[in-house]
Structure formats: structure tokens, C-alpha cells
Design a protein that fits this description.
Strand content: 35-45%
Strand order of the largest sheet: 2-1-11-10-7-8
Largest sheet: 6 strands, antiparallel
Structural class: mainly beta
Distance between the termini: 31 Å
Length: 118
């Protein structure tokens, strides 16, 4: 099992980090829904520019995609409006409505053995 973090980079939830789990041994990608609807994985109900079902993050084993779900106001990677599904790099900023977000694979913590000589 692995984790994916979605950081909100603007708006009233600026600085919030949402964590999602994904199964590494599954052939199915993890899909994270983004929208204004209460049931969305990333719910941006405070942003009037966000559609109810605005976009989705699709997380494969080593690749991430951002998909616009035919939203009214568009989905952007940087300043570029996307249509359909576009590959996105971890750490790259994207915008849904007026809200900026960033996807990052969660960092793994390594346990350090205190008995090591260094």
C-alpha cells in the first residue's frame, strides 16, 4: 500500500493536505474525484467556479493524469487549459476553479537504527 497526497495551495483551505491510499499490487489505477459535490474525494464546495464533478486525478503505479470532466470553467495545469486526460508530474501545480492544488506521492519514512555507528 502507498499513499498519495493532494495539497490545497490557495483558498480557505490553503495548506491543507489530503491523503489517499492506493494498492500497489492492483492493476487498477486510483481515481480521486475533485468537485463541488459533497461526495467528492476533494470537495471544493466553497469555490463557485468549480463544477459539481469537475475533474479527476488518476494515479497509476508510476504515472499521474489529470482529467477534466467537461467542467464549465476548465481545468488548468499551470496556465494551460487542458481537455480530456493529460499526464501531470508530481509536484506540478494545477487549478480547479479558483483553487490551486498540487499532487505529491506521500514521503516514506525510514526507520533509523540507533545502534549504527554513524
Amino acid at each position: 500500500m502507498d499513499q498519495i497526497e493532494v495539497a490545497l495551495m490557495s483558498g480557505p483551505q490553503d495548506g491543507a493536505v489530503l491523503t489517499f491510499e492506493r494498492l500497489l499490487d492492483s492493476d487498477e489505477p486510483t481515481v480521486i474525484s475533485i468537485g463541488r459535490r459533497e461526495g467528492s474525494d476533494v470537495c471544493l464546495n466553497y469555490d463557485s467556479q468549480v463544477s459539481r464533478e469537475h475533474a479527476a486525478l488518476i494515479c497509476g503505479r508510476e504515472t499521474f493524469w489529470l482529467e477534466d470532466k467537461q467542467s464549465t470553467n476548465g481545468t488548468y495545469i499551470g496556465d494551460e487549459k487542458i481537455t480530456g486526460r493529460v499526464q501531470i508530474a508530481p509536484g506540478q501545480l494545477f487549478r480547479i476553479g479558483r483553487t490551486w492544488l498540487r499532487i505529491e506521492p506521500a514521503t516514506s519514512f525510514v526507520v533509523i537504527d540507533d545502534d549504527l555507528p554513524f
